[in-house]
User: What shape does this take?
Amino acid sequence: MKNNLYSKLSFAVIGAGSGGKAIAGYLALKGYTVNLYNRSIERIKDIKQKGYINLTGCFEGRGPLNLVTNNIERAIKNVDVIMVVLPASAHKFVANKIAPIVTSNQYIVLNPGRTGGALEFKNIISKHNPIKEVCIVEAQTLLFACRELHDVNVKIFGKKNEVKVSALPAIKTNEFIGRINKVFPEFTASKNVLETSFNNIGAMLHPIPTILNCGRIENTHGSFQYYIDGVTPSIASVIEQADYERLMIARKLKVKAISLKEWLSYTYDAHGKTLCEALMNTHGYHGISAPPNMQTRYVFEDVPQSLVPISDMGKHLCINTPTIDSIIQLASIIHNTDYFKYGRKIADMGLDRLSTVDEIIDYVITGQIDTSEEGVVA
Amino acid sequence: MKNNLYSKLSFAVIGAGSGGKAIAGYLALKGYTVNLYNRSIERIKDIKQKGYINLTGCFEGRGPLNLVTNNIERAIKNVDVIMVVLPASAHKFVANKIAPIVTSNQYIVLNPGRTGGALEFKNIISKHNPIKEVCIVEAQTLLFACRELHDVNVKIFGKKNEVKVSALPAIKTNEFIGRINKVFPEFTASKNVLETSFNNIGAMLHPIPTILNCGRIENTHGSFQYYIDGVTPSIASVIEQADYERLMIARKLKVKAISLKEWLSYTYDAHGKTLCEALMNTHGYHGISAPPNMQTRYVFEDVPQSLVPISDMGKHLCINTPTIDSIIQLASIIHNTDYFKYGRKIADMGLDRLSTVDEIIDYVITGQIDTSEEGVVA
Assistant: This one.
């Protein structure tokens, strides 16, 4: 590990799905040292054998990898940045794996964290070692739009111009951005991880149209356009109500969250009188198919790691989220899993001891729980 | 009004939708005196002009009417039986209209009552006159499968072999069945109105597939088979969970309620390993189209007058109904109406002062609220 600020950063990429392959290939193509880890060796055996990832699309060429492994300890040893590019449902597993071995001068970047990803990660690491200082960075969305192809190939369709990130603790955000800037100039500072977590737009866009098109998905195996045919005025009204609940919580947490409609306008330059109209005017959504069945990440990732933490934060702050809760309930029945129970909750995020908004904000800024009052009482 | 038990009964039919026209035409064809009322004169102007209803299908011929009117007082004056054949959402309006004029020797028959129809009706009449004794009869389902045609014509596709009914108070059920038997031998006694109310199968079959196919209904204007394409395994699992909540409440109320799957087997001789399979094997459901848009009785009748009273009874008895509540919440957003607030609740049914199951059961049997304990305290 190079502690010199001016040396070239080295990376471990955790997860070899399409997103992980794209980031690993991109970094390697740019000449960085990259270790690629995946839990199952099967998924990376071609890459391991050939030693590189081949990019097509916006970026073209071979990215040679330093190490391809299913041994996480070897993957992260001595690297500067650990990029976790996994469905949020895998965060808990990875956090438990790396907790004993991560060092205080490594950055852990969740790309993305969904809602409460960095908080859960830090909480798990703290349970292993309460005094270990770690810097966990949460990205609000994925950097690349990409799709994995056969063998060692991955196609990058697009790269976002800007991705908001925040460190936990937030006092380290600028330091991180300074160090990563040459690699990812797209990363810009968000106020704190509450801001990245409560601007989780996927939480609004994924589960609701899936659940409210559940009959059509199963009856037609998803042969319709997910957004264009699937988001009708009634579905848009349910999304808007869930979005309103999310925004109420964000406001209480004193972070700037933008509505889905504002986000479409900002991100895709898509406008409309109604949310439904704006979605229909989102060029990039045309041609995107619905999932072929209900075993989709739109539910099994976005319900437990996005809607449940939003709902549970609502409960913690006495803000009702009946619309979000309805979707969690229906998803729980459809997947025969109690997502309210197994999803990411306040306790998983280590916030159960913090009863006021100011205590929560203080924690995400400093990474420390202020125990002074407890001290006074003792 | 003929008080002689052996004279021929006379009827008022309230509501001239397809069900009301079918019942009025059927009774008139059988030679009974029938007055037909409808709130809007427009709907009955052809019948008023010609003076009869013409039946086709299972029953054929002209049924001459005694009176066709939009004056409810004239319609019900001196008749023995007032048949209310309306969407349950209109019960409140009709109850308020007839409360001052109905007499204690008239039967009011709700055909059907959905959940809590008779209780709400009686509660409204009691508010007008606390000591007036009335006998309100709740039918569990519609007697006829029918569709109105142009002008004075209505087609009856089928007549059920059995329709369960109960009087409120239940001590009058047998007397009613004895008197109506020659007219409607299909009516058989149910234990009490809790049994007819909590065997409301439409509550399970109507709102859930509509809400969970909401995208497809709006995107295709309902061009798919409602049950056959619309009820997929995931939707069936949501229906089963809601059905389980309904059965838990019925059990607590000590009434026999049968599951939807048992009901399909009993009513249509349709079987299957799963509920989904049994629905697919229900011959009568093939060819039934989905509603063309979300402004459908499947939602605006079945949510406020079926799901809300079930949910509110659950709350009253400390039984959670999270699945039913999810559907009410989504329906409320889609219809921009707070159905939790405006639907039929415990207070509307006059049960808010009755805190135990035994008090509720005593009330539906006797029609009297036992105030002896209050008397003792005073």
Notes: Chain B has a mean pLDDT of 93.
